[in-house]
Design goal:
Elements (H helix, E strand, L loop, with lengths): L5 H14 L7 H8 L3 H18 L2 E6 L5 E6 L3 H15 L14 H4 L2 H14 L7 E5 L4 H11 L3 E4 L10 E7 L6 E7 L8 E9 L3 H12 L3 E11 L10 E10 L4 E6 L16
Parallel strand pairs: 3-4, 3-7, 7-8, 8-9
Antiparallel strand pairs: 1-2, 5-6, 9-10
Helix pairs in contact: 2-3, 6-7
């Protein structure tokens, strides 16, 4: 096996860490791959860690012990989070988004791969230590956000369907009621989606009163799963909400269909008590 030059080693180590977020890689595995002493690997990792920290890319977390190693934790600092969320607010304020019934068109935002990836990094920062085993979303518009978040957390994705499909095999189905229109519906999830008792992170694109999200929470109860976090790209200000403790990047405070005006402000992730309150370096 060839012995790597240090410059090539640093590049390849960085690539491996970036491609495998939250995966624990032992120093022995690095040492064997590069035919280098563990002390040299530790020095290289210190350089990578410092570069990640200075550039706002993330952090390297070291786990001690015989089964220990290092893992890459993608992070976004307060400034990056604010820039991304303000951009989201600006997009949402565009009156051309207003659809009949006061709904908002979001498909262009959810089709912007880089923007969705940026949001995924924010959620990965917020829920980095949630202990989630799986990211859960409901079809269809929440799927890009769920996969972006899961890619930074190194987790699988489970998709809740509004109707059961034969290709899903055995499913669990519950009835739901929309929080705003009181419309009846159903949500289904394949029994093989994840193990009973898993910890789940719910990610979705938009929430009004929270009927769909509450439905997902109820469905998770059928799997004896614990919901450890709820991340919503944008929510709507309503008098009564069915879901508590959700986190949002933006909040739509008013949709004036007649005058073609949308009012949007930063979500509850920002400001006093929010995750990105101006004091978080990552």
């Amino acid at each position: 096996m060839k012995k790597w030059k240090r410059s090539a080693r640093l590049v390849d180590m960085t690539r491996q860490l970036l491609e495998q977020p939250h995966r624990l890689i032992s120093l022995s595995a690095f040492a064997e791959r590069y035919q280098a002493a563990k002390s040299s690997i530790s020095e290289d990792l210190a350089i990578i860690h410092e570069t990640f920290r200075e550039e706002g890319t993330g952090l390297l977390e070291t786990v001690s012990g015989a089964a220990g190693g290092v893992r890459y934790l993608p992070k976004a600092n307060d400034y990056d989070a604010l820039v991304i969320s303000k951009r989201l607010c600006t997009h949402l304020e565009n009156p051309d988004r207003i659809l009949p019934g006061g709904y908002l068109y979001l498909s262009d935002l959810l089709g912007d791969a880089q923007f969705v990836r940026d949001i995924g990094r924010l959620w990965a920062t917020v829920f980095s230590h949630s202990g989630a085993d799986v990211v859960v979303t409901v079809e269809t518009k929440g799927i890009p956000l769920a996969y972006a978040t899961a890619s930074f957390l190194g987790l699988p994705v489970a998709i809740v369907r509004r109707d059961s499909r034969i290709t899903e095999g055995s499913v669990v189905t519950i009835n739901t009621v929309s929080g705003s229109s009181k419309r009846l519906g159903s949500l289904s999830l394949a029994r093989r989606s994840f193990s009973e008792g898993s910890k789940v992170l719910i990610i979705d694109d938009f929430m009004k009163a929270g009927g769909t999200v509450q439905g997902m929470i109820d469905l998770m109860g059928e799997f004896r799963a614990e919901v450890v976090g709820i991340g919503i790209m944008a929510d709507s200000r309503v008098d009564e909400r069915l879901v508590e403790h959700s986190m949002s990047l933006a909040t739509v405070t008013d949709v004036d269909v007649k005058n073609r005006r949308i009012a949007v402000e930063l979500g509850n992730l920002f400001g006093p008590g929010g995750f990105f309150d101006g004091t978080n370096p990552y």
